[in-house]
Design brief:
- The chain has five helices and eight strands.
- The radius of gyration is 17 Å and the shape is globular.
- Helix 4 crosses helix 5 (about 185-200).
- The protein has a single domain (about 5-200), classed as Maf protein (Alpha-Beta Complex).
- The two termini are about 15 Å apart.
- The protein is about 30% helix and about 25% strand.
């Protein structure tokens, strides 16, 4: 029997990625917007705290199990900024383009070897709103920031995140290539393993 899980995000890029990757374990992923769940303020100071806040909120309103993802880019030269503020790095009305432009301005004179960065993803699965032991998984993807954007796939900072293994940016990878090595892909593989174990 297929199980419905609500995904606590309004980001359509994340919805598509997670729905595709959860399909093998017979889970139907439905975005919280279908239940008219509004975004909850992300008042945590870490990716883990924010993911738990979002998952609990979605589970409470829908009565369904919930998955929340909190992720972002940590640039070493910028003391791990933008970090948990990645989505709104350039202000409350931020877009992917305005965030990228701000990041490139911050790193304008920084030589290539010092432009190292990591994408970080924390996934939280809550069986219900009062789940005392949510499943928490974390993935990291190491790369560096390019001098200018390249590629049209993906979302967020993908066009400026250089992937050494493929000699291109994340935005130049296919979804299959990206899911195999990305921070979200790694976190989701951990989650799949744990959910499969619980189904057995």
């Amino acid at each position: 029997m297929k199980k419905t899980v609500v995904l606590a995000t309004g980001n359509q890029g994340k919805v598509k990625e997670l729905a595709r990757m959860l399909a093998p374990i017979q889970m139907t992923v439905v975005p919280q917007s279908e239940y008219e769940v509004e975004d909850v303020p992300e008042t945590g100071t870490t990716f883990v705290e924010n993911a738990i806040i979002k998952a609990r909120h979605a589970a409470k309103i829908t009565g369904l199990p919930a998955i929340a993802d909190d992720s972002g880019l940590a640039v070493d030269f910028l003391n791990s900024a933008p970090g948990i503020y990645s989505a709104r790095y350039s202000g409350e009305q931020a877009t992917d383009a305005s965030n990228i432009n701000k990041l490139l301005r911050e790193l304008a004179d920084i030589p290539e070897p010092e432009r190292t960065a990591r994408f970080i993803c924390v996934l939280v699965f809550m069986r219900h709103a009062d789940d005392p032991t949510p499943i928490i998984c974390q993935g990291e993807w190491v790369g560096r920031i390019t001098a200018k954007p390249s590629g049209s796939e993906g979302f967020g900072y993908d066009p400026v995140f250089w992937v050494e293994q493929h000699q291109c940016t994340s935005a130049e990878l296919s979804s299959e290539q990206k899911n195999a090595i990305s921070h979200r892909g790694l976190a989701l593989q951990q989650l799949l393993t744990q959910l499969r174990d619980q189904q057995d």
